[in-house]
Every structure is written in C-alpha cells, then in structure tokens.
Amino acid sequence: MKDKKVLDVTAGNKGMWFDKKDGRCFFIDKREGEIPMADNDLYRGNGIKLKPWTLNIEPDLIADFTCLPLEDNSFHLVVFDPPHAFFGKSGFMAKQYGTLKDTDWREMIRKGFAECFRVLKQNGVLIFKWNETDILTSEILKLTDEKPLFGHKSGKQSKTHWITFMKDDCL
Q: Over the Cα atoms of the chain, what is R_g?
C-alpha cells in the first residue's frame, strides 16, 4: 500500500475506473464478492428487460469509509463516491451503489469527508462525486468545513456533480 498514491474509499465494482486493476490505486469497499444483479423480472424504467449479470466487488481492503484503518496523510489523491439515494436495501440500485435508507446519512457523509481529508496528504486532492437523486449537493457540502475548488455537473439531467477539493491546512 505504501507505493499507492491514489485511494478510492468507495470502490464497489470500480465502475468509474478505466483500469480496474490500476496499480497506482488502493481500492476500499465495505463489501466483497459476487452479487447477482438481474433476473427475468428486472426491467429498466423504459420497460426494457435487463440481462442477468454479476457485480464483482474486489477491494484491496474491506473497510468502511467512515472509519478508515489507514495512516494520516498517506495519499495524494482520494476518490469519494458515497451512496446518494434512499433506494430499498435489496433493490438493483442499492446492490450496485449502496443506499442511505435507514441510515443517519448526514453523520455518515460527515465522517466520510473527515476520513478522506485525514488520509489525504497536504496539498492532496479529493474528487467527490454526488448525484442529486434525493439530496441536493448544497446540503451535502454543508457536511464538511473544507472549501471546494471547482466542480462539474454531468448526466442527462445534470444531477451528477463532480467536485474537487484540495487539502490545505493554511486556509
């Protein structure tokens, strides 16, 4: 792990990664294993039937992003893409992305931000991804004292926000 410069604290199936085995990154998730993702009864919102497939979750370390078993100031770049909606716990979207259902989501996200900044080196960068399915980005940004540098909206409805922070203890 000492040779890794990048940390993904919510790696899941590493869906955003071009190289899911990128040697520069240390991948963490609180889950591990193969999760069946579709059956004959599962349809997209447009009525098209989904083909069965398996979600493979293979982190380097099984851990929760709210309590990382890592040293302070360890990584140059941290990626944080926490659950962002109140999906049912056993549904397709919850299996893939996790859920805020039945959680103290404010405390969970607050702790997640704190842990990400704790393990980030001075002048290190945090890339934060949030989708406004259920909670506005402005509400989420209130859960950290850190000041974002810039961001970008994406997706058909511009509900996904990519936000960049830099750890700077001097501000």
A: 16
Helix, strand or coil for residue 137? helix
Interval 125-156: pLDDT, tens: 999 999 998 999 999 999 999 999 999 988 87
CATH 2.40.128.90 fits 6-166, yes or no: no
Q: Using CA atoms, how far apart are residues 115 and 16, in angstroms rounded to an integer? A: 21
Q: What is the DSSP string of 73-127?
A: T-EEEEEE----S---TTSHHHHHH---TTS-HHHHHHHHHHHHHHHEEEEEEEE
- pLDDT tens per residue across span 27-62: 999 999 988 876 655 666 677 777 777 889 999 999
So where are the chain's domains? 6-166
